[in-house]
Design a protein that fits this description.
67% helix, 7 helices, mainly alpha
Length: 149
């Protein structure tokens, strides 16, 4: 299974804090090595490492948002409602990231609009039958780590 490096995860933790992203409650209780067991970047678990790396590099802006989404899938309750909720939280974080990165100027405004469109495309990608299968597979597999509330 593809894993993000501990160094990348440390950088993503800083970005999550800086952007005040909405994270599931388990996030604060996970050590970096535990988070590494869960966070696999952008794309389904079943993708080979090369495809994950390509997606992470191409969509690097939204890599930070994939962390919370991976946690939500890992600890989800298996319901369709929770799946939609996880995907909605991912979309909202992606929009927050787009707004956080660009602050004014015509070119930056155009980039921000494009990033919002990419965020919507990513949401559309996870709100598919394949996304539902990925969520259900994560639920059936069960969490890789135990987190106590």
């Amino acid at each position: 299974m593809y894993q993000l490096s501990l160094a990348v995860l440390e950088q993503l933790r800083q970005e999550i804090a800086n952007q005040l992203l909405d994270m599931p409650w388990q996030y604060e209780r996970l050590s970096l090595p535990e988070l590494q067991e869960i966070a696999n970047g952008i794309g389904p678990d079943k993708w080979p490492a090369l495809e994950h790396q390509l997606a992470d590099d191409t969509l690097a802006t939204f890599l930070v948002d994939s962390v919370g989404h991976d946690i939500r899938y890992e600890f989800g309750d298996g319901t369709e409602f929770d799946w939609h909720s996880a995907n909605q939280q991912f979309l909202e974080n992606c929009h927050r990231t787009a707004d956080h990165l660009h602050h004014g100027g015509f070119i930056e405004d155009a980039e921000r609009v494009c990033l919002h469109e990419v965020a919507s495309l990513l949401f559309d990608a996870v709100e598919t039958p394949t996304g539902w299968q990925s969520y259900r597979a994560a639920h059936a597999r069960g969490p890789a780590v135990v987190v106590i509330p």
